[in-house]
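ok here's the first one, seq then struct tokens
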Amino acid sequence: MLFQKTRWYTVIVVLTVAARVLTAQSTDSRNSSPNPGKDSTAWTADDLLLSEDAKSFRISPDGQSVAWVQTAMDRTKGRTISNLYVAPTRGGAPVQLTKGNHTVSTPRWSPDGKRVAFMASLPLPGDSAANVHSASTQIWSVDPHGGALSLVTRVEGDIDDFAWKSPSVIVYLAEEEPSAYGRLMRDRKDDSRVVDDSLHEPPDRLFSVDLESHTTRRLTENTDWIQDFALSPDGNTVVTVHERSLSEGYDQKIPSITRLTNLATGSSSIIYDGKRTIPYNLVWANDGAGFYFVNDTTTSPRYRTATVALLDYYDLASGKTFPVDRTWSRAVAGNLRATPDGIMVNLANGVFVKPARFIKQAKPGQLIWTRVDLDGVHVANSFDFDVSADARAMVYRYTRANVPPQLFGATLTQSQVAQDIQVTQLNPSLVGKPQPTVEVVHWKGARDEPVEGLLTYPLQYTPGKRYPLILTIHGGPALADLDEWKQTWSYPRLLLNQKGAFTLQINYHGSARYGLHWVESICCGNIYDLETPDLERGIEYVVSRGLVDTTKLGSLGHSYGAILTTQLTTIDPRLKAASAAAGDVEWFSDWGVVSFGASYDNYYFGSSPWDDPELYLQKSPVFRFDKVRTPTIIYQGTDDRQVPPGQGWTYFRTLQQIGKVPVRFVIFPGEGHSPSKYVHQRRKIDEDMAWFDRYLFGIRDSADDWLNLP
């Protein structure tokens, strides 16, 4: 662990291998497991970091079983691992189908229900021990009742996605085998990269593999990069979305196209040129007559940056596209699942979801859908779901801001989710621990428009007493805080609530899930102008209720949440502590370095930095840092392509050199925008808690010594 002090109020920390060992072995730090004799119900950092979750779940064709991927951070391995499980949808003991410290994803049942295929980075048969930890992502299959794993593919790169064509054939998406150039660079161990080198970037194509004959066949000969595909129920037709430029994410100049291909004849045609429609979440109708998809809409003539997702249908016979629903303006949220009579979706509804079925009806010359909203005990918080082929069985992931996630099975009628039964038993160690009160709150923000948020109370709240308030600001900006369990390294709210603070989550202007007007409101030069009043008025709202000690205000955010936290410290001297992870402080360098820099900055600022440098200067908080009076801790990954690492350095050095506030800078070597290693996630929590202890709660104890706080 290397510490470099500059003044009493300034410190920079670089996490090295020694630091990782020290942190992993530490048993007496601020948030480690309680010592014997201490309250065993107290929340710890590891309660949050090591918690389990169930994702990517799929119901078997007969509706009787569900397969899912169970994930958890492994403290010993220092990273997240995942394994495959299966259990009856009506409850029963689960069967663990994979074991080990690897990555498993995307379980898919074979059409006859006899196998579950999945993608995994498991060691390949015959590989030497030296290659075990560099195993690529391949397709495997397993008997859902248990048994040995079978390797389905063995390609040089990684599998990106796959689908069952028949009980014995799988279609998969993968990069074409390396060219002579690629193999030469590999053999030389040359990791140099040429940016946007389309000449030497192998295309992403579709292939099929026969599980019985073990033969592989290339299905497409495209020279571009397939990003998404969906196979028709009969396996004869495939819809593919093709990226045509390696810089599409950066500047959005050359949009993706969508093709429809007959796999039997090889005939292919472009059905969408990308000018108005770029489909995703592709799902074929059960009868194969067409496919449903989500398309982002925007009023911008140039960029798809702040958008609302709408549900559409492509009819195979007519070649026409039909809108499925335009009655719900807040957008489609999450997965689509075909039913015998139409499609089932989650609709965005602020901090909640609104599950709905759309029943298809054919009339002369047109197709229309009738929306049926689902009702049930957990529907508003079923943020992910799957349904059986006959739409009589349902599995959903239920969670609330103060309820850790579990999978539930249920029966499904046309509008009713009933007979709910818990399928998983995740996180048994968290049962019995205290949970805070969480309240959905509203106030008038910028333009006097209503803002929605989540106010979480201190664990030991006493009416009439005033407490510290900490804003925990989400990123994006086109994301949203939901009424779901999100206790993470980036937002350890429970630990702050346990310390005796209110935490406030705010879906400010520019957030998703409130319609096109809201998400687009901060475009075209309005960035900062609406979100900042939303945050400030949120503080005043909680203060007006007599809940807050206004001498103890703080803010914490990651990504755009850090950007807004930084902005607040330049205008609100009341903030006593701030934590900003991976956030911009000046926008000139962001434009060229970030992987989506031009499309993001040109959209939100309404101009490029060379067209309007004065605007970029005005909007960059770094030039107002002489007004900052808030002790600030900063975090940055060295490999971040979403916020340039130089932003963290500029943030730190500017505050350090101005010299008016304590500042601390923590660097995570080898990490991108979000640290993935246990030691870095743990360090982030420990640093935040120590920082807020010192500057907001007014606490300093021996745990500060090993953190070497000023």
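and now the second one, same deal
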Amino acid sequence: MLKNYLKIAFRNIARHKSFAFLNVFGLGIGIAACLLLFIVVRYESSYDQFLPNHRSIYHVVTQDKTSDGIDYTAGIPFPALEALRLDIPQVATGALFASYGSQVTVMGIDPNVASGKKFIEDKGIFFADPVWFKVFPYKWLSGTSAVLQQPDVTVLSKKMAEKYFGTWQQAMGQFIRLDNALNVKVAGILEDMPANSDYPLAVVTSFATFKNNPGVYNYLGTEWGSTTSNFQLYMALPDNISPATINKQLLAFSAKNYVKTAVHERTNFLQPLSDIHFDARIGNLGDHTISKATLRTLSLIGVFIIIMACINFINLSTAQAVTRSKEIGIRKVLGGRRMSLFWQMMGETALIVVFSIIVALALAAACLPFIKNVASIDEPLSIFTLPTLLFTAAIGIGVTLFAGFYPSLVLSGFRPMLALKNKITSASIGGLSLRRGLVVLQFAISQVLIIGTIVAITQMSFVRNADLGFNKNAVLVLTANMDSASRSKLQVFKQELSSIKGIQSATFSSDVPSSDNNWGSNFSYNHGPDENFTLFLKYGDEDYIKTFGLELLAGRSFIASDTLREVVVNETLLKKLGVKDPKSAIGKDIRTGRSTWLPIVGVVKDFKTNSLRDETKPTMISTTLKYYSNVSVKIKSNNLGNTKEAVEKAWEKYFPEYANTTTYMDENINNFYRQETQLALLYKLFAAIAILISCLGLYGLVSFMAVQRTKEVGVRKVLGASVANIVYLFSKEFTILIVVAFAIAAPLAWYMMKEWLGNFAYRISLGIGVFAIAVLISVVIAWLTVGYKSVRAAMANPVKSLRAE
């Protein structure tokens, strides 16, 4: 029996090649898209879950509550480490300090002789104590966490050891130099961290080394008023201690150690490790966060795509059902039972789904290497893993049941006498109402994705072209960590730069105007008490304002100085202070922390201090040589390549011992929006897939209608209807269906994209134009799809259709 069913199934597929191709191709694309989304969502959801105790690890977070709202900081004051260990001794508390853009110079067996190899490591350079590895139990290839009790020792990941020394075994006992300041001995090797970790350990030096060299990384061992997101604490809670218990103790800890005022309150609380990758408020030590809402949206898109593919199968199968009516009638007359026929049709569906899965796996495997362009996944992935194959099997079963049930029920329910007399009509197959509803659902889904695509593209265009308040174009940025001896050569290096043709100006600074850095401090204005909000700091030389094209509203730029002497502030600071006229702020004094009072000599027009996701922060700019780590060069845009090469040669001339990273500022700013750009690309891809599947669905429905209305079209043509009249007859109905779909899609798309735009402090408005474009695109696509089949129906010979009666 099974053999006969398979023969019949293969014969039907071979007989109706076009329908089989559309079914297999439509389902294959849908399943492939769903598989790729599953891989992305599963990967993003798996961060740090490789740790055996990941459910018991918590991050100690700082919360600052002011009259302006609540701010969160991933870091904690430096003295809090020992204080917490005294107050909560029953919990292991580990410390981790991250250094970004650090230079690693390979020294070899002799700490005083450099090998000539030097690297700038953008991430992965950390300082940790042994307790941190009790909280995060990573695997060691050589050594143990106990080696980090000593100063001037470091451990390397296997990958970094091989990068610096050839093999990880050779690395043991050799030396590296950090930032041309600290010689440290390699005393351990860590197994490489999986890529799906927010703790990309590459070089981990003992925390004792960090504390013994406070000037190198600005360690403030007794300063409770200062926090940095680079310094973070983590706890591993035993099974018998709940997070709520520790949070109560942290409230008491905060009350004891932080000064509470009428306008400011600082507290600490626990953040589960499982939330760190998804909480953009606090951030992490990896290269990105992603919201759970985004993952839910991607999952929902996958569900929508597979539903649309199933709808296509239903429409195409029911459209084809009329052609099989005589076959079903004969089977029933010869004793075939309805249940047997039902399972035969389900078997045919399963066979098509199997072919579709084969196509889907091939498509997904071919697309997988390019997934890094639409998601933050850099490691190679495989489609043939157990979870993915189990998911594929589940999709296959689900699609077979969902897509095959209704067509199988319809075909197995044909009345044999009507089937043999060719009297099966649309009424026999359940009418068009269900299929119309399915097409409405398809186009509603596709219009949601079309609207999302238009909004994402428009917002990213707005971001790229927004006025940032400074000149980002043709600004070359060299980043390097330098010591005081090297900084003494900055002025002569600057003179060298001024002699290079094509350079307009250059400046040294701690930070460019717009970045991910947020160096904040408490402060006082005009000899008053501390203000109730944070002041953010940027340091640069006397050419900072000129090089970046900042606009002065009042006063002047600061004069040349190696230390703090004068400051320039932005508009936002004055607005928050209640100062309406920028000129009135000139001559007033300001101080950060408990430093000396400094005069305000200038006010600059607001510029975007971070990405457009954030509001402009109250900012102070001043001079301090010891914080300079960036060299920014404004270049004439007509000769970028040669000028860049000349700048790098000048750098090597004056600072041969320092490596550097060279980037253009506009590239750095574009990196702010890597995830949003990827999401916009995802919307484009899946909107295109949704449109393609919708077109297949329309083709199925118009095919069904053309078969059912063959005689009607013949009668109309005999009575004088033109081809245009017949095409209009078909197109009118689908246009109405699209308008109905739009009425369903528009509110849903508006809500979803309003939520997404809420991530940006500066954003476009959701105007009616976006929705009008979406419905216009849908109508045009539908007309093009319907046009082919309806023209063929309209041009058919009416005599043949009427004779069939």
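notes on #2: The first helix runs from residue 2 to 15. The chain has 28 helices and 25 strands.
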